[in-house]
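Lab meeting, item 3. Inverse folding demo.
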C-alpha cells in the first residue's frame, strides 16, 4: 500500500477508528479491481464454455457480435453479444423456461460473468472455459 495513502488515512481517521480505515482500504481495492477487469472491444468470447448447469455452449463470432448455442441443438442461448458504449451487451435465453433477459458480459480469461436483468430482477451467471475439444 502506498505510504501516501497510509499517511492520508491516519491523518483523516485517527488510529482509534481502525474499522473506518479498513473499510476505506477495501473500497480502494475494489475500485482498482474494477478498473483491471474493464471491458474491451477486442475481447474474444469464441470457444466452448460450461454453464453452471454443466451444459457446453459454443460461442462463435458473426460479424461484430457473438452468439452461443449448445453444440447439439439449434437454439441460441446467447444472442447478439455486441460491444456498445463501452460494454458487452446481449440477450441470454433459458429455453426450458422460455425466458429471455438482457445481459452485460464480462470476460476474465477462463470465465464469463453475465449480469442478466429482467425487469427489477438481476442475476449473475458464470460460464467457465471448457478446455477439452
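The presenter then showed the designed sequence:
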Amino acid at each position: 500500500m502506498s505510504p501516501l495513502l497510509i499517511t492520508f488515512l491516519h491523518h483523516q481517521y485517527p488510529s482509534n477508528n481502525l474499522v473506518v480505515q479498513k473499510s476505506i482500504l477495501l473500497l480502494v481495492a475494489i475500485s482498482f479491481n474494477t478498473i483491471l477487469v474493464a471491458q474491451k472491444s477486442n475481447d474474444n468470447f469464441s470457444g466452448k464454455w460450461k454453464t453452471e448447469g454443466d451444459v457446453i455452449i459454443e460461442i462463435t463470432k458473426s460479424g461484430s457480435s457473438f452468439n452461443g448455442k449448445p453444440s447439439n441443438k439449434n437454439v441460441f442461448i446467447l444472442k447478439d453479444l455486441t460491444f456498445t458504449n463501452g460494454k458487452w451487451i446481449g440477450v441470454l435465453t433459458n429455453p426450458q423456461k422460455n425466458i429471455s433477459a438482457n445481459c452485460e458480459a464480462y470476460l476474465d480469461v477462463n470465465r464469463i460473468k453475465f449480469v442478466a436483468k429482467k425487469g427489477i430482477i438481476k442475476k449473475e451467471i458464470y460460464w467457465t472455459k471448457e478446455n477439452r475439444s
